[in-house]
Design brief:
Helix content is 44%, strand content 16%.
DNA sequence: GCCTAAGTGCTTTTT
DNA sequence: GCACTTAGGC
């Protein structure tokens, strides 16, 4: 096989096929090229059969990209290579071994929203006030525990605070509920395979024998469960090749631990290490800027990323007046690019999903086609969620969560009372809600589901969707409504059918099971579309692993990026900096860094100083476009507080947490108060703690 | 049981 | 600004 187009180290990385191999690959150093070439090398040199190779990536996007590349190198044999995300790999294990773990064949996967719904319901059952104990926090706590392989019984040993105690109670119920409804959450997809392997060494052995060659991309982002899973499967042959860069570790909120990559040599004896330091992607200027920023992090291995690409043009820094002005600026710059660039060469990155909206509005106004990657907006629409809930229930009647969602959709007079009775009966008889239906208006509902179920065997997926929309009355209801709103909903449902159609065209005859599994892991509509000639909008997290000729990073303000929740601890701040590093190193030729003096945040106007990351870049690499030097922003926290007392604007008060402040506005019982604060960040707080008149 | 208005809290990031 | 919850009238 011809490895001529690789450099020395890349070549070595491909040729070392036996034993543990650690590839420390800086941004843009061609690691995907190395990985895909390595897979091709293994197969073409008959070292491994396609089915002996397991390649794991982090995002669906990355998996798809790798698969496409391998297919173009190897042709159809490549279809037998398991290239997937950790989670979809987990699904494939569960589909073969659900029995050993006591699940039914038609298990369902809950996304994080579903998990939250389950937890809210448990809180209700346990009479716990969700305002006092945030369901989200409980969910996150449970999820991170699971990712550390801590189940509820182990968790009991770590209970210290009252919150822990509540979490523990909910944790137990949550486990019960999921098992009872034959459902798995995302974390189960990692920990159940581990449990399976621990309990059944012979099954583990079969996986070890099957996957003799293992490749893991973005190893710095693995969490404990993923780390253990990989370790187990690779234990026999130890042909494990991991690629990563601790400077790009950005998933610690999900339990990822970049020390996994720093410790790889200790974990796997006789590891060979290869450094890929030459960058093929970016101009020298962009690379210099990235290096300037990342060197402010203390916890990192020293890498020296270099390139022999051209110096390139300076990075453009623009400070806009407000968020509208910001997106208008980006749009006008994009318009300048259109003549000489493909739209697919342009990307806009932001820190939080909410920031896409202004950008979308501006692009819509100017008729510039775009796509928002990783937006679950479509699947989060009420009508789509309802439809999916119906489909899930048709597939798995034990799915109580879905049943509760749609039992009264469209409205048929089934309210709280009915559901309470139903729940009670279900608990007593230890059966699902669906099973416990035996009369009333609910029976009508059950009959409809039964009818669709019966018909489903002889229908294609798209036909099944159509039948569901008709039999349930969802379609009729919307057609009768005849409002703008209902029209949009109908359109969305049509769009859903076009997704199932595309799906069928791509995959042939597809079962409801396969479809539901797929959309539970890939709930991003863009993955199913082929609209390639568009500008790409996405969060920096989704941008990892990708590259674009022209990159805009917006919202570079203290409090947004670095995000306000990440500014307190050094460790979080370093992760924000790594995130910024990822953003910058996506750009091949041109980079814009943009922020705004003022913006509407949570409905309040706020003024944030420019992100510290900008000042970490040497001035010589920046073309600054701001019509005044950065003013020293007045340092204050703004708090809004409920109060019955009479206050007037301008009055001084004392707050028991923030100290002295001044009333800025009075709106009914809502007060907005300014407090001096060293960070210069506005913090919105409402409805708690007391203030006193001075 | 359904509808509406008022109230409340909230946004990191992904599978 | 928005989505979600809750209370109260029908």
């Amino acid at each position: 096989m011809n490895l001529e187009n690789l450099n020395e180290n890349q070549k070595k990385a491909v040729e070392i096929t036996e034993g543990p191999l650690l590839i420390l690959a800086g941004a843009g150093s061609g690691k995907t090229k190395v990985l895909t070439t390595k897979i091709a090398y293994l197969i073409m040199n008959n070292i491994a059969q396609p089915e002996n190779i397991l390649a794991i990536t982090f995002t669906n996007k990355a998996a798809k990209e790798m698969k496409d590349r391998v297919i173009s190198m190897l042709g159809s044999v490549a279809y037998n290579i398991q290239i997937s995300t950790f989670h979809s790999f987990g699904v494939s294990i569960m589909r073969s071994h659900y029995k050993e773990l006591g699940y039914d064949k038609n298990f369902m996967i809950l996304d994080s929203d579903d998990s939250l719904t389950v937890i809210k319901r448990i809180l209700k059952d346990l009479n716990i006030d969700p305002k006092q104990y945030s369901p989200k926090m409980i969910r996150n706590r449970i999820s991170s525990s699971k990712n550390e392989l801590i189940d509820s019984s182990i968790f009991s040993k770590y209970v210290k605070t009252e919150f822990d105690e509540i979490t523990h109670k909910v944790f137990i119920k949550y486990e019960e509920k999921l098992k009872q409804t034959n459902s798995l959450d995302f974390d189960d997809l990692l920990i159940l395979p581990i449990q399976l392997f621990r309990q059944n060494p012979e099954i583990l052995l079969s996986y070890q024998e099957k996957f003799k060659y293992i490749l893991i991309d973005e190893y710095q982002d693995t969490n404990e469960a993923q780390y253990i899973l990989v370790k187990m499967i690779s234990a026999k042959y130890k042909n494990i090749c991991v690629v990563g860069d601790e400077s790009q570790s950005i998933y610690s909120f999900r339990g990822s631990n970049y020390r996994n990559i720093l410790n790889f040599e200790k974990d796997y004896k006789n590891t060979q290490v290869i450094l890929l330091e030459k960058n093929y992607r970016s101009t020298q200027t962009i690379l210099n800027a990235a290096n300037d920023v990342i060197k402010n992090n203390t916890e990192r291995k020293d890498k020296n990323l270099w390139t022999d690409n051209v110096v390139g043009s300076n990075i453009k820094y623009h400070r806009a007046m407000n968020e509208k002005d910001e997106s208008d600026y980006v749009t006008s710059e994009i318009k300048k690019l259109i003549n000489t660039n493909k739209l697919s060469d342009i990307a806009v990155f932001y820190r939080t999903n909410a920031q896409s909206r202004n950008m979308e509005e501006a692009l819509l106004r100017e008729n510039i086609p775009y796509k928002v990657v990783g937006s679950f907006y479509f699947y989060n629409r009420q009508e789509i969620k309802d439809l999916i809930a119906y489909l899930k229930l048709i597939y798995n009647e034990k799915d109580d969560v879905s049943l509760l969602r749609v039992i009264n959709v469209p409205k048929k007079g089934i309210g709280l009372k009915t559901i309470e009775n139903l729940s009670l009966r279900a608990v007593i008889n230890n059966e699902s809600l669906y099973q416990s239906i035996n009369g009333g208006k609910e029976l009508e509902f059950k009959k409809i589901i039964e009818e669709i179920k019966k018909a489903s065997d002889s229908l294609s997926l798209t036909e099944l969707v159509e039948l569901t929309l008709e039999k349930t009355g969802m379609k009729q209801e919307l057609q009768n409504e005849k409002t703008l709103e209902s029209d949009i909903r109908l359109e969305n449902l049509e769009e859903f059918k076009s997704i199932t159609k595309t799906f069928e065209e791509k995959n042939g005859i597809i079962s409801l099971e396969e479809f539901l599994l797929e959309i539970s892991l890939v709930s991003d509509i863009e993955e199913y579309k082929n609209n390639t000639e568009v500008v790409t909008l996405m969060t920096i997290h989704s941008a990892k692993g990708l590259e674009f000729k022209n990159v805009f990073v917006i919202g570079l303000e203290e409090g947004i990026f670095p995000h306000i929740n990440c500014m307190d601890s050094k460790c979080d701040l370093e992760e924000e900096r790594r995130l910024f590093y990822v953003a910058v190193t996506r750009a091949k030729e041109n980079l814009w860094l943009i922020n705004s003096r003022k913006r509407l945040l949570f409905g309040n106007e706020s003024a944030n100083p420019a992100s510290r990351f900008i000042s970490e870049i040497k001035d010589e690499y920046l073309d600054k476009d701001e019509f005044e030097t950065n003013p020293i922003i007045q340092k204050r926290i703004i708090g809004t507080i409920n109060s019955k007392e009479e206050y007037t604007v301008g009055e001084s008060i004392i707050h028991n947490e923030f100290g002295k402040g001044i009333i800025i506005s009075v709106d009914k019982s809502l007060l907005t108060i300014a407090f001096p604060h060293p960070n210069g960040i506005k913090k919105i707080m409402r409805g708690h703690s007391s203030i006193k008149k001075v």
